[in-house]
């Protein structure tokens, strides 16, 4: 899919990504990129980027990237496990995430998501998500 097609697909209904101001910025055969603002929507009480917001960005990018690797008319990708190491605090600006595949299998996918501060390039968070690839139910007539 092209960047515009992915943006239209992901904007088809309101999501957490919308509430946090996430944007998909690049779709490539080897990765997917997006960004998220560091502001009141994504701060924790001390004025730093909330770790949960970083994980939400990582899961969003990993989930979209995984879904782009399957026939979405027949399969879906759902999260099995996600972990994150928070490396550096950020108070403002934007963070950028890049999801790259570690393993693309028939029934599972593993993605690494590196989140950096857009202005300084400093590593903010590194995350890994494992996705299950599941078959969608057949949409034809049901057997009696």
UniProtKB/TrEMBL annotation:
<keyword id="KW-0378">Hydrolase</keyword>
<feature type="domain" description="Thioesterase">
    <location>
        <begin position="46"/>
        <end position="121"/>
    </location>
</feature>
<comment type="similarity">
    <text>Belongs to the thioesterase PaaI family.</text>
</comment>
<dbReference type="GO" id="GO:0005829">
    <property type="term" value="C:cytosol"/>
</dbReference>
<dbReference type="Pfam" id="PF03061">
    <property type="entry name" value="4HBT"/>
</dbReference>
<dbReference type="GO" id="GO:0061522">
    <property type="term" value="F:1,4-dihydroxy-2-naphthoyl-CoA thioesterase activity"/>
</dbReference>
<protein>
    <submittedName>
        <fullName>Hotdog fold thioesterase</fullName>
    </submittedName>
</protein>
<dbReference type="InterPro" id="IPR029069">
    <property type="entry name" value="HotDog_dom_sf"/>
</dbReference>
<dbReference type="InterPro" id="IPR003736">
    <property type="entry name" value="PAAI_dom"/>
</dbReference>
<dbReference type="InterPro" id="IPR006683">
    <property type="entry name" value="Thioestr_dom"/>
</dbReference>
